[in-house]
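Budget justification, computational time. The allocation requested in the original proposal was used primarily to generate structure tokens for proteins on the priority list. As evidence of use, we reproduce two of the resulting records. The first is shown immediately below.
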Amino acid sequence: MVLSRTIRYLVFLPAPLLLLLCSCSEPETSFTCTDTIGCITVGPEEPVQIGVLQALTGEVAPLGQAQLRGLQLALDKRNNSLLGHPVTQQIEDTGCTREGGANATLKLIANPQTVAIFGSTCSGAAAPASKAMSAAGLTMISGNNSAPNLTSLAGHAAPGWQAGYFRTAPNEENAGRAAAGYVFHTLGLYRAASIHDNDIYTRGLTESFKKAFTELGGAMVLETAVNKGEQEMQPVLTAIINSGAEVVFFPLFQPEGNHILRQAKAMSAFDKILLIGGGALIEQTFLDEVDDLGEGMCFVGPSKPKGTAVDQLAAAYVAKFKEKPTVDYYLSGYDAADLLFYALEKTGVQEQDGSVHFGRMALRKTLYAVTGFKGVTGSLSCDQFGDCAQSSFDVLCLEDCLLGLEGLQENRVYSSGTGKQP
């Protein structure tokens, strides 16, 4: 009965009103993806899902934790929301190994709703991760990877370059050059040895050091390697002594870097051999571990950013995590996340029902086109190889272990920006 009365009512409605009612009931035109490598659609009630690759176990964990905290601070800036959707994270631990990076990335790729990847901590893990990510049509951005092999060498695509890979950590192609300049020009030392651990990061730095040092006129009297996990460093250290090296460059991670330092300090010949580590050891946990054995050792790492934005983020860090940072790489981690979220906000296509569509190629193109982005570490502009940060490195030397990380960072003895002692 009710249905028949409704039908009679509709029959006698004016034609224009009838057409209006009919048109309102028609479904809206669905979104058509024209992106060359596809789109990801986030439904009205669904979160934006970000994949996270970091080293969260082992001696390198403080670096991965710093990246994760930088990401969390960038999310706090946006109240954990992008384009009206909450952000969730699928966090995978790479363990700072090539195998860990490959396995963790496969887990993220298996989730069809992964919009982009934040990571990784270690360049060795990034090599297989970026390759798999790129093939899957995703975008990945790191605040910590710095091996030259991942982006560019001498202005050309490096062997490990992959489309869709970006980073806000500076390309360390010039880190070895800064260390070589300090050794040759400032100290007047002309015989050097190097140690890597077959990781693309450590090998890349020792190769850049060798290239710069020999171009200056120095001699590489020994190039050697240790294995990850190796504890007995006496054979390598003895070979360095026998080579007649005046300086040894070993940009290793913990714990191998700790073992090198401890065992070298137990050998009297190293009283006259300068030890230079890389940026992976410029952190408080390393200084706490080696204590006064580290005094006299030098390090080469990215120039420390300064300014109001850095101070404000440091204060936010302490307020949120109830402790001071043990390493400064949370700053570049924050910039990586902030830049990624900016690009997602620029490329997301919103529907009236609240859903959002992200074009995969559109996201990459937006990042490649970034110029003058205001990061806490400085102005960010992404080149065609995915390098977004300015490349400036300092040599720091530890004079007083009691002054900790801040004291070390204040004792800058050489800068690649000036090419001379400050």
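The second record produced under the same allocation is shown here.
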Amino acid sequence: MSERVQRTNKQSNKPKITVIGGGTGVSTVLSELKKVADVTAIVSTMDSGGSSGRLRDENGILPPGDILKCIAELLPEDEQSVKWRDYLNYRFRKGKGLEGHSLGNLLLAAAYDWEGGTSYGIEAVSWLLNIQGRVLPVTLNDVQLIAKLSDGSDIEGETKIDLRQDDLHRKIEYIYLSRRAQLFKPAHEAILKADKIIIGPGSLFTSILPNFLVEGLPEALAETQATKIYICNLVTDPAETDGYKASDFIQKINEYGADGELVDYMLINNGPINEVARRMYETERKYPVEADLDICKQMVRREVLTGAYCKGKTILRHDSQQLAQTILSLH
């Protein structure tokens, strides 16, 4: 066994927390949990746009973008690591072939090639940067996300689904994958060994639910003895969840999970939202998620919890400290 794997698997007295999702939402949760828990991020691998999409199409690799966000968030807080975070997130503004790429995405693409595969590349970069936790792809299968809309048409590609702006009256009925995908074995093990499983936050149909389409993940969630916690989004998204209340979010989580399986807890923001930010988001048809608690309580096994989980004056994000405190208190 390599030194890297030995370091990754060393025992810890901290609670084992596995976070499932993708993109900015999950990385926000990791920023505080890494300080108090032994964390593993299981990340969606269906991204199809931007730098990640280009590297995927041109090099035949799994998109590195969401993996990178989690690696960057799990860096230590020392001065050297903070500088590394800046470099990893640096995006080239010019240069034929370079423009639009982030340095971190290129580093991961190089590591995938040099180390002989996606999982080995992630492990190597994680070891080099001494991250506080593990980052695992949900699957190693190269698949595209497809959304079936209310008019019967399909949209293929995570980015096309997430960023669509036309004909938004066509609602997403359900999502599926271009072909079968199997759960990455270490991700399965992380779910079974976890003390707590965190689902979300993040774009419902393009970051969270795609993980549930991977064969083996719903079954692993049903099998694990871990406490399962769903973190509801702060605002709706016109392309995915326009008009959704909190109960609509948790209903979809239950729908894509194993039959009859419910999460134990649901966390919903009921704290204040900066008025300037609220107005800015409304211009994009994004609105605070209504907390219809009575209905939500019927859809979870134990309890629906509310709190002041929102922060930000222009860009709204979950308050990672408040989330971490609540998560640690749940059993």
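A brief technical remark on that second record: Residues 24-36 form the longest helix (13 residues).
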